[in-house]
Amino acid sequence: MPRYCRKLSMITLNASKLVSFSFPRTIAPLTHSANLRPFCTMNTNYDPQLDHIFDAKRSFRTQMRRELKNMDPILRSQEDDAVQRVVLEAPWFKNSTSICAYISSNALREVETSKIVSAILSNPAAEGHVQIKKKLYVPRVEDRNSNMRMLRISSVDDLVLNSMNILEPTLVDRNGNPREDVMKTTDPIDLIIIPGLAFDRSGRRLGRSGGYYDMFLRKYQELVKKQNWQQPLLVALSYSMQIVENERIAVTPHDVPIDALVSPSGFIPISPVALKCQ
């Protein structure tokens, strides 16, 4: 069997019931640097005054990775279900027509998003008495310089495994056409669902050191201002153990705060925009 032929476990929606299935997929060697997603260091101008912040982040990441690795699998599964249930039942999710969401990676121990992704791809958004099909954009890492694109998919079949077993969208659709890029759309995004290693109730987020989400969010926020759109709601998904005391997470001027958290215990609004979503 070729080394790029692997079993890909996917989740799909069958009637109203989620079922798991596996199938082999042959994947061509990657030519981009998608496998660098969790391990790159953001390429910024060197500032010696920030050394202590980067050191603190590095140390905290090591601690959080260890704690996530040791998390009880049964508890993790229960919290995955609870977090996704909160999202799926939330009006801010149901009313969103354009959504950016990450494809969860078991290897990275991210909060599961399979049910959320299935719901977006399967269900329309209600807008008055009109049913509008939701749009879903998912991340694809482009290079070592923290550049990440959000490309539209219409099915889980639009995803392939990169060399780090992380699912990403292909650059072109089945007809060979380039996928719709969220930075080039004519309509704004309503909701961005974000992963991370740790969060606090003031909006701070500890990423995986790549800087991809912060770079993308800053670029998209600039586009929103230019187009005079409403800023999207930034919601992070978190296990209970990932929520830490305020100011435990060191931040730099490059870090973008989140609007809200979803934990197994429910929706935690942070920004004024999120407070209006309750």
UniProtKB/TrEMBL annotation:
Keywords: ATP-binding, Magnesium, Metal-binding, Nucleotide-binding. Its cofactor is Mg(2+). Signal peptide: none annotated. Its EC number is 6.3.3.2. Coiled coil: none annotated. GO terms for biological process: folic acid-containing compound biosynthetic process; tetrahydrofolate interconversion. Transmembrane segments: none annotated. It comes from the Eukaryota. It catalyses: (6S)-5-formyl-5,6,7,8-tetrahydrofolate + ATP = (6R)-5,10-methenyltetrahydrofolate + ADP + phosphate. One of its GO terms (molecular function) is metal ion binding. GO terms for cellular component: mitochondrion. Pfam families: 5-FTHF_cyc-lig. NCBIfam families: MTHFS_bact. Belongs to the 5-formyltetrahydrofolate cyclo-ligase family. This is 5-formyltetrahydrofolate cyclo-ligase. The lineage of its organism: Eukaryota, Viridiplantae, Streptophyta, Embryophyta, Tracheophyta.
